[in-house]
Each structure stands twice: as structure tokens, then as C-alpha cells.
Design brief:
- The protein has about 120 residues and is of the alpha/beta class.
- It has one domain: STAS domain (Transcription Regulator spoIIAA, 2-Layer Sandwich), CATH 3.30.750.
- The chain contains 4 helices and 5 strands; from the N terminus they run ββαβαβααβ.
- The chain has a 5-stranded mixed beta sheet with strand order 1-2-3-4-5.
- The chain is globular and about 30 Å long.
């Protein structure tokens, strides 16, 4: 996991790679909270490099979205594979989170998600 300043003003980008399982959950939560605290207005969590997204990954996103420090900030999730979007869809998080980059999704008018890159 890496945390860097993003291209947008007051944005921090947390790039997550590899497997998100129970063993990685404490580190993931600490890293995401540190990134949230560092972000001015926008935290983007890039999950495009994730190869396994288990319940620990889902739990970390729910925990972060409900954290008191997230109240005044926007959290965006980049999910480009069904490895991540499948569990997000099953748990209802696609509707609760700002998820962008989803594969094979044609956005509806007013949809928050961006179309997949060709």
C-alpha cells in the first residue's frame, strides 16, 4: 500500500495492491485512516491492483466510510475488476460508496461512476 498526493487539489491517493484478507486488515485500516487524515477534501482508494478482496477489504471500507473523520471528506473508490466489484455489489456498497472505473458498466445519466477506459 502506498499513499501519495493525488493530481486533484486536496486529494490523497491510497494505492492498494495484492490480497486483502484477514491478515492484512489491521495494516489496511491503519493506512487508510492515515490517508484520510492527510487528505484535504478527497481520498481516492485505488483498488485496481487488488488480487483478492475478501470480507476484510469490505470491512475496512465500511469502517472507513463510517469513521467520524470521514464526515467532512469525500472518499472515492477505484475498482476496475470483478474481484473487487463483486463483493461490493453483494454487500450493497456499490450504492453507498462512490465507486468508479467499474468494468463493463455503462453509466446512467447522473451516475457517479465513470465509464471503463477503452
Amino acid at each position: 500500500m502506498t499513499v501519495v498526493d493525488g493530481p486533484e487539489k486536496d486529494q490523497v491517493l491510497a494505492q492498494v495492491r495484492g490480497e486483502l484478507d484477514a491478515a492484512s486488515n489491521p495494516l489496511l485500516q491503519r493506512t487508510l485512516l492515515r490517508a484520510l487524515r492527510r487528505a484535504g477534501q478527497l481520498l481516492t482508494i485505488d483498488l485496481s491492483g487488488v488480487t483478492f478482496f475478501g470480507s476484510a477489504g469490505v470491512t475496512a471500507l465500511v469502517w472507513l466510510s463510517q469513521h467520524p473523520e470521514a464526515a467532512d471528506k469525500h472518499v472515492r473508490v477505484v475498482a476496475t475488476s470483478r474481484i473487487v466489484t463483486g463483493p461490493l455489489e453483494l454487500t450493497g456498497l456499490l450504492e453507498r460508496l462512490d465507486v468508479q472505473g467499474m468494468p463493463g458498466v455503462v453509466p446512467r445519466p447522473g451516475d457517479r461512476r465513470t465509464p471503463p477506459a477503452n
